[in-house]
Amino acid sequence: MHNKLLTNYDRNRRHLTDDPSCPVCHNGVETISHVLRDCLIAKALWLKLLPLSDNARFFDLNFNDWMVGNLRNGSTAWENLDWRMLFGFTCWYIWTWRNKLVFNNSRVDGSSKPNIILHAVHACVAAFDALATVGEEDRFIWYDDPPSSASLLLFGDIVGVAHPRMIGS
Ligand SMILES: [Zn+2]
Questions:
Q1: In terms of residue numbers, what domain contains 109?
Q2: Distance from the CA of 41 to the center of ligand 1, in angstroms?
Q3: Which of 36, 70, 149, 152 is the most exposed, fewest CB within 10 Å of its CB?
Q4: Which residue, 94, 108, 109, is CA-closest to 34?
Q5: How far is the CA of 37 from the centre of ligand 1 (A)?
């Protein structure tokens, strides 16, 4: 994952930019942990999604412990959703929204973000439930369909699994 998301910190190390700072909040070096957790925009979103009791520890962990710990945390979160899925989708959306803002100057309203993420996770759960009831032939058709599979493939990529069907297993 360190090598997959090209932050300004990485660009600076590769001499692709002189400025390693965060282009969103201008409040620190844009490392991967800054983008996904510590950037003001990311932190505001996490604070809306986190169970209150977890707040302090969530922001104190080093990046690897944070990523692995959350992807292994099988507790339930909002609306009875699996925290691992909510966490993974939130990371993916934070990165996607960061890129839209940086490259397209397109901003998503912060108050609508939790609902967008919850909707995506519910859709994913429904898709997996549907997959469990269809045959192999139907699965190929479903996976080949670009609009429905694109975000799942990217989600699979971000959590480092070879195939999205492995999520949650
Ligand atoms: Zn920032």
A1: 8-166
A2: 7
A3: 149
A4: 94
A5: 9
Q: How far does residue 36's CA lie from ligand 1's centre (Å)?
A: 9
What's the pLDDT at 163?
A: 43
CA separation for the pair 54, 87 (Å, rounded): 13
Please write the tens of the pLDDT for every residue from 68-100: 999 998 888 888 899 999 999 999 999 999 999
Residue 23: inside a domain, yes or no? yes
Whether 45 shows a pLDDT value over 60: the answer reads: yes
Structural domains counted in the chain: 1
In a domain, 1, yes or no: no
3-state secondary structure of 80: helix
* Residue 68 CA to ligand 1 centre (angstroms): 22
> What phi-psi label fits residue 28: left (phi over 0), alpha (psi between -120 and 50 degrees) or beta?
left
- For residue 44 the two structure tokens come to 């505001």
Q: pTM above 0.85?
A: no
Which residues crowd ion ligand 1, with CB under 5 Å?
22, 24-25, 39
Assigned domain for 61 exists: yes
- Mean pLDDT on 7-18: 88
